[in-house]
Amino acid sequence: MLDVRRLQVLRAVVTSGTVTAAAAHLGYTPSAVSQQMAALEKQAGTALLERVGRGVRPTAAGLLLTEHAALISSAVAQAETALADLRAGRTGRLSVRYFATAGSTLVAPALAGLRTAHPGIRIDAQLTDPEDPFQEMVRGRADVAVVVQASGRIGRGFRLVHLLDDPYAAVLPLGHPLAGQEVVDLHELSGEQWVGCEPPGPCLEAVTESCAAAGFSPDFVIQSEDYATAQGFVAAGLGVGLMPGLGLRNRHPGVVVRPVRNPEPVRVISAAAREVSLQQPALRDLLDALQEAAVTAGPPGTG
Questions:
Q1: Which of 137, 138, 160, 140 is nearest to 149 (CA)?
Q2: Fewest CB within 10 A of the end CB: N or C in the chain?
Q3: CA atoms within 13 A on the CB side of 299
Q4: Which residues make Cβ contacts (< 8 Å) with residue 105, sequence separation at least 6?
Q5: Residue in 150, 212, 147 with CA at minimum distance from that of residue 186
Q6: Phi first, then psi: what are they for 216, rounded to 5°?
Q7: Angle, vertex CA 274, rays to CA 140 and CA 121, nearest 5
Q8: Which of 97, 101, 100 minimizes the C-alpha distance to 111?
Q9: What pLDDT tens digit does each residue of the chain (303 aa) get?
Q10: Residues 270, 145: contact at Cβ < 8 Å?
Q11: What structural domains and CATH numbers belong to the chain?
Q12: Cα dihedral angle (65, 70, 72, 75), rounded to 10 degrees?
C-alpha cells in the first residue's frame, strides 16, 4: 500500500524541481526527502524520478502518482472544511422522534427556531408508533426524542432534559353529576365507565397507577386512538376519561374538564439525547429550543 505522506513528499519534489527545494518547503533535510522517495519507489515497484542536470523530473509513474497526490490533498482539505462546518453546526443531520401531542406544541416551534439558527442542518423528524420515542434512541435511530417519564428507563449514554409536567384532568360529559364541582377527587370516578385514550406505555401507566393509588382500577369500555375522538365519545355519554393538558388544547364543546386531586396524575415530558451527539451545537440548540417551547406551551388550564 502506498504511503500517503510519501506521496505528498513526491508532489513537493516534482513541484519544486529539486530535492533540496522540496526539503526546504517541507522542513525536512534533503537526506530525509531522498529516503522518503527511495521508500516510495520500493512500494510502487518502479522508478518515480529521474535526474536532469541538478534537478529531477518525474517518470510517467511519478507524474501519475503526483496527480493522485494532488487529488488526495484536495480531498483532505475538503474533509477538513466539512468537519469544521459540522463542528460549528453549519451542516449535519439530526434525527428527532416524538409522540403525537408533543408534535405541534413542542417539536414544531423548536424546529422552526433551529432552522433559523442552523439553516444548513437537515432534520429527520418522525412521529413514533407506538408512542415510545425512547426506543428509537435505544436502537440508534434518533439523536433526540421527546419522551414521557423516561427517568426510570434511561441508562448510560443518554442525557435527559426536563421540559414540562403535563397534569391529567377529568373529562366529563355535559350534565354529569361531577361537572359542577371545581375539583374532582379521583376516587369519585371509580364507579364510572371509562373512555380510554392512551396506548400501553408510560402515558397509560400515569393514569392506571394514579387510579390504583385512589383505590380502584378504571373500567375502560371503549378505546380511542386520539384525544379528539376520545372527547367525542365522552360528549356522547359513553364514559368519562382522564386526558393530559396538551391533549385538551382543542376542547370539544360537549365536555367539561375539571382538575383532579388525591392524587393528580401527571406525565413528565422530557427530551432525551444521545451523549455522543451533544458535541453538535445544533443539537444543544435544539434542546434549548424545546425548553423554550415548553415554557411557551405549558398545559392549558381547565374549565
A1: 160
A2: N
A3: 22
A4: 246, 249, 293, 297
A5: 212
A6: -155, 170
A7: 85
A8: 97
A9: 888 899 899 999 999 989 999 889 889 999 999 999 999 999 989 999 998 888 899 999 999 999 998 888 888 877 776 676 666 666 578 899 998 889 989 999 999 998 888 888 888 999 986 657 888 888 888 899 999 876 566 777 888 999 999 999 999 999 999 999 999 999 999 999 999 998 888 888 899 999 999 999 999 999 997 899 999 999 999 999 999 999 998 999 999 999 999 999 999 999 999 888 888 888 999 999 999 999 988 766 555
A10: no
A11: 4-88 (1.10.10.10), 94-163+269-297 (3.40.190.10), 165-267 (3.40.190.10)
A12: -160
> Contact at 8 Å (CB) between 16 and 75?
no
DSSP assignment of 32-47: HHHHHHHHHHHHHTS-
Nearest to 96 by CA among 285, 299, 247, 227: 285
Owner of C-alpha cell 451523549: 275
Amino acid at 202: P
Q: Are strands 255-261 and 158-173 parallel, antiparallel or unpaired?
A: antiparallel
- Residue 201, all three cell numbers: 406505555
